[in-house]
Amino acid sequence: MISALLALVLSQPVAPVAPAPTLPEAPAGWPTVVTWSDGGRERTAHLDESLVAERGGDEHTGAALRSQGAMVSSTRGKMRLWRVERAQVVLVAEPKLLPVYRDEGSPKLRVPIGGVLVVPAKSTTAAKLREVVGGKVVASGGVVRVPCPPAKVFELTRTLSGAAGVAWAQPDWWLGAQGK
C-alpha cells in the first residue's frame, strides 16, 4: 500500500521552482526600492509612482508636464512636486525631473537632490576621508557631503557604505514634504 501511494506521488508532475524575485528598476535608472543605514538604523523608501519633483523648474518643463495631464501637488521653496499618472514614464521623458520616494510605513516624502552624506568613523579625519572619496568633500559639523549627480546617489551611497573609514553613508535628501 505504501509503495502504491509512493508511486502515485512520484508520478505527479513537479512544477519548477521560480527564481527569487529581483528588485525592479525604473526605466530611467531610478530604483523602485532603496535602502540605506543612517547610524545603524536600516531605512527603506519606495518610489512613489504618482509624484515627480522639479527643482528650480523652468517654463518648458512645466508646460511639458501640463500637456501630459500633470498637476502641481505642492511647492516648497525651489522644489515643486507634480502629481502624474506614472512617474517612471515621466522620468524617462523629462530627465531633469527627480523621483519622489516615500518612507516605508510613513507619509514622509524624500527626493534625492545629489550628493551623499557621510559620517566618518571615529578614527578618521575629514582629510583621510577626502583621500578615500577622491578629494571632493565638504565637511560641516562632523558630517561630510560628497557631491555627485542625483542619478549616481544610490550607487555612491552603496560604495561609500563599505569604504574604510566610513561609519555610515546616506543619500542627501530633500525632506520638505508630507504626502497628501
Radius of gyration: 22 Å
Biggest beta sheet attributes = 9 strands, antiparallel
Task: Give the percentage of residues in beta strands.
Answer: 35-45%
Amino- and carboxy-terminal Cα gap: 64 Å
Low-confidence stretches: 2-27
Written as H for each helix and E for each strand, in order along the chain, the element string is HEEHEEHEEHEEHE
Query: Could you tell me the mean pLDDT?
Result: 79
Helix content: 10-25%
Total strands? 9
What is the count of distinct domains? 1
State the shape. elongated
| Structural class assignment | alpha+beta
Helix count? 5
Which labels suit this protein?
single chain; 5 helices; 38% strand; alpha+beta; disordered N terminus
Could you walk me through the main structural features you see in this protein, from its secondary elements to its overall organization?
This protein has 180 residues and is α+β, with helices and mostly antiparallel strands. It has one domain (33-178). The protein has five helices and nine strands, in the order αββαββαββαββαβ. Strands 1, 2, 3, 4, 5, 6, 7, 8 and 9 form a nine-stranded antiparallel beta sheet that branches. The radius of gyration is 22 Å and the shape is elongated.
Please give a quick description of this structure:
The protein is an alpha+beta fold and 180 residues long.
Write the layout of secondary structure elements.
Elements: H1 2-11, E1 33-37, E2 42-55, H2 59-67, E3 71-76, E4 79-83, H3 87-93, E5 98-103, E6 108-120, H4 126-133, E7 138-140, E8 143-146, H5 153-161, E9 166-178
Antiparallel strand pairs: 1-2, 2-4, 2-5, 3-4, 5-6, 6-8, 6-9, 7-8
